[in-house]
């Protein structure tokens, strides 16, 4: 096991599944072989130079689906690791894996009906797409840095809702048992949601950067770009189409965050970076505009607009997590009070403060911000002597006037100090007033006064995910790898198995013809096994007629617009060999 994987916390391991290699069918193995057979020669010419070297370095076999444990051991040589997951996992979880230098690999395999492209994450996309480029240090640095930055992005409620729809749509498209009316319903839901006008969030902008780099990026010059994006490296059809002149090539800048994309269609334009270090520079340029670095009013307004859970961080280190609804300015028009709705969590250094979780703060929270007017200092900068000199000690009544007019009064119940600085002051019979407005009243219960002069950072999600969402380990049996074997392809899978055994045992070429005839008669839509048989018998002079008939049979499939390039490339490689 890699060191990176060994160091993962349990809450991330909760999203992993075991790779059950026995669940891969012979059809699955043939799909992998064929994709790699036609892709590797193409990418030797058209992918970034690290791709081909990376195949060996990260343990990717050509002839069979990889075992991810073996990939994990190989990636350990580059300070990375790999885990297997089931389909889509929450974006924030995916990003944390990357930030810890662990590549999540979807364990399921696309069906042969979706051999050229699958809308759902699968082992071809993750293993053959993402993994090989990690052998390039500059790319690996960008991937890790992207995970670190994207974890902090503020995600809107719209983003969360759209993600759920995309996940359902992708999984339903890949599932052969999906009812057409159900698929149509979710497609209409996706179209409606996509057309909604909404404020673009940080998470959306970073998702666009991810799409135009990690998924669909080109590297090199505009005249001779090379492929490195995993979406292109794992798409048989789009990888070849993307390099023609019909697809516009644009030098990548930070402006790529303004270019939307459609996951259901080929991309009409792609962005080209001169090298991978340039991507890291662009990422850091964007990060300087993000709320987790800027804090202040701009960060607060992003949080409010998101209508989602965010965390506001005081200069004292106190973290307030929840849905921020509003903020109030004082007489100097400076922010002096924050108002949260619903469940709120108070934390320090990403750990929930004892007794200050969502059960206790279940009806919102009001957070004061600013300096005490008398001494022009924030509460968090006062030591014990200074607190006592102001009468701030347990069981004492206090009246605190803040610069700008905010007034807090009540009886001190408890002072919480962390790292020798006050973080929270709990007050009974508390009143909080701003001008003539009451922001907190005594009958509302104990008031926990936040200590700090300003908000230095605002980031997406709660500070302590585990406690905010009341995380508990779930039985691993709840998530498991799927199999593509069903009642409709059991017999076909047996034919694939027979051909595999024939090839392994060097059976005479004539023995393949009865299997071929069964395919003609019983499985007229399956071309992949016909292609394998064609490769095996092509040089046998005693089977000339059968070879000619099989070639003509495959030509019929090649006329299909979705398969013409794929089958054509396969035939070309076989016949050249």
Task: Explain the overall architecture.
The protein has 577 residues and is an alpha+beta fold. It is built from 23 helices and 17 strands. Strands 7, 8, 9, 10, 11 and 17 form a six-stranded antiparallel beta sheet that branches. Strands 12, 13, 14, 15 and 16 form a five-stranded antiparallel beta sheet that branches. Helix 9 runs antiparallel to helix 10 and helix 21 runs antiparallel to helix 22. The longest helix is centred in the first third of the chain and has 21 residues. The protein is elongated and about 105 Å long. The two termini are 38 Å apart.
Task: Explain briefly what this protein structure is.
Helices cover about 40% and strands about 20% of the residues. By secondary structure, it is α+β, with helices and mostly antiparallel strands. Strands 7, 8, 9, 10, 11 and 17 form a six-stranded antiparallel β-sheet that branches.
Strand content: 15-25%
Largest sheet: 6 strands, antiparallel
Weakly predicted, low-confidence segments: none
Helix proportion: 40-55%
> What shape does the CA trace take?
elongated
Q: Count of helical segments?
A: 23
Q: Based on DSSP secondary structure assignment, what is the total number of beta strands?
A: 17
Mean pLDDT: 92
The value of Rg in angstroms is: 29 Å
Distance between the termini: 38 Å
Structural class, from helix and strand content? alpha+beta
